[in-house]
Amino acid sequence: MIRYPAKPINQAKKLAIKEHLSYKEIGRRLNIPDSTISIWCRDVEGNNPRKYPKTSKKIREKIEKLEKGVFKDLQINRILAKVFCGILYGCEGSKYPASNCIIFTNSDPELIVSFVNLLRSSYKLDESKWRVHLQIHSN
Question: What is the mean pLDDT of residues 13-40?
Answer without folding.
Answer: 85
